[in-house]
Amino acid sequence: MPPLGEIGLHQFAEFSNGNYDGITYLDTFFVKRYRATDERLYFHELIHVVQWQLLGAERFLAVYAAGLEAHGYRNSPLEAMAYGAEEVFSRNTTAFDAEKWVVVQLSQMSAV
Ligand SMILES: [Zn+2]
Predict the structure, then answer these.
(1) Ligand 1 center from residue 88 Cα (angstroms)
(2) How far does the centroid of ligand 1 lie from the alpha carbon of residue 48, in Å?
(3) Distance 97 CA to ligand 1 centre (A)
(4) What is the distance in A from the centroid of ligand 1 to the CA of 44?
(5) Is residue 112's pLDDT more than 60?
(6) Is the pLDDT of residue 33 over 60?
(7) Which of 12, 33, 48, 66 could bridge to 4 as Cys pair (CB 3.0-4.6 Å)?
(8) CA 93 – ligand 1 centroid, Å
(9) Residue 21 C-alpha to ligand 1 middle, in angstroms?
(10) Span 12-25, average pLDDT
(11) Predicted confidence band of residue 62 (pLDDT cuts 50, 70, 90)
(12) How far apart are CA 2 and CA 78, in angstroms?
């Protein structure tokens, strides 16, 4: 986790101090060892990889930070999208196009 508080972004203190089981930077994600076989978490982090790719790093960070500040972690738009995709993934028994799904979700976000 970047030291957001140390660089003056105190509004993200709660997020910075959070204990997350996975985190994604660009095309790489990390998960805690005890979740290493959790497909659903992998899928969640892969949705973030797609978000990073579609938005680009600068826009991803801007949209993520704005969403975090306005709505908190769980309800921030990019997290809500990843959790929503997890739901679709866990219900689906057939393959679906996750990238296309993210494109549609992003197009419905007014701030992007
Ligand atoms: Zn997430």
Answers:
(1) 15
(2) 7
(3) 19
(4) 6
(5) no
(6) yes
(7) 12
(8) 22
(9) 9
(10) 86
(11) very high
(12) 18
At residue 87 the predicted structure's pLDDT band, cuts being 50, 70 and 90, is: very high
Mean pLDDT of the chain: 90
Q: Tell me, what's the pLDDT at 100?
A: 95
Phi, psi of 99 (to 5 degrees): -65, -45
Name, in order, each residue with C-beta under 8 angstroms of 73's C-beta and a sequence gap of 6 or more.
14, 15, 18, 79
C-alpha 33 – ligand 1 centre gap (Å):
17
- Could you tell me the distance, in angstroms and rounded to a whole number, from the CA of residue 10 to the centre of ligand 1? 20
* Per-residue 3-state assignment (H helix, E strand, C coil) for 59-95: HHHHHHHHHHHHHHHHHCHHHHHHHHHHHHHHHCCCC
How far does the centroid of ligand 1 lie from the alpha carbon of residue 73, in Å?
9
| Helix axis angle, 39-55 to 98-107, nearest 10° | 50
Residue 24's contacts (CB-CB under 8 Å, 6 or more residues apart) are: 30, 45, 48, 49, 52
